[in-house]
Amino acid sequence: MKKNYKFILTYDGTKYYGWEHQPKIDETIQGKIENVLSKMSEEDIEVIGCGRTDAGVSARGYVCNARLDESFDPTYVRDYLNRYLPDNICVDSCIIASDRFHSRYNAVGKTYRYTCYIGDTKPVFDRKYVYALEFKPDIEAMKAAAAILIGEHDFASFCSNPKMKKSTVRRVDSIDIKVDGDYLTFTYHGSGFLQHMVRIMTGTLLEVGEGKREASSMRELIEAKERAKAGACAPAQGLCLIKVDY
């Protein structure tokens, strides 16, 4: 008999092609975990993720689930995975969840954090995980722009998929912009996010911070529903999935 095992992962995604396994590409998070679980179980195992993280994006609280034989103790499964997975992927916890738990469909909210470096020198040890800016952004202007994005809107202007068939309406609950020393962080919480949505919002807010567009232009972007009118997509390495709510 099989049980539904729930995992919480931390991973450094800078060297991976994202979460989802792809044909002829071994370097995905899902692919690595499925390979190890399949060897442990001596059968093909499918791992269901809470969503797709892009190539180069990391996570501190990624949630996934898989059905395994009930004879496997969750602690043993966690330790087995951590023994054979690469050092840049860690299983923080493994528990047996309800049979109906689905890491993607049951998620009701997600928190992402985007980190920029705004110091005068170089972020030597953090360079793979931050976006180093060449200007000092106007924090208050970005906060004013972010306030307009909060709420339920059609975020088509902030979606990189022009063939999106499903609704592009999403709810953004909060955008917290903070400076701590040489680091600038954007923390987003919402019901869910479209492809590249967080990175596009960050890139657009940074253009406001640089004085390239007015904070009030966020209203026009929402109404336009045109990706070309929003800002650049911020680099992947600055983004990290922090938490998934259920």
Description of the molecule:
The two termini are 26 Å apart. This protein folds into 2 domains: 2-97, Pseudouridine synthase I, catalytic domain, N-terminal subdomain (Alpha-Beta Plaits), CATH 3.30.70.580; 109-245, Pseudouridine synthase I, catalytic domain, C-terminal subdomain (Alpha-Beta Plaits, 2-Layer Sandwich), CATH 3.30.70.660. It is α+β, with helices and mostly antiparallel strands. The protein has 5 helices and 10 strands, in the order βαββαβββαβββααβ. Strands 1, 2, 3, 4, 5, 6, 7, 8, 9 and 10 form a 10-stranded mixed beta sheet that branches. The mean pLDDT is 96. It has helices at 29-41, 74-84, 139-149, 197-209, 217-224; strands spanning 2-11, 47-49, 58-69, 89-97, 109-117, 131-132, 151-154, 169-180, 183-190, 239-245. Strand 2 (47-49) and strand 3 form a beta hairpin.
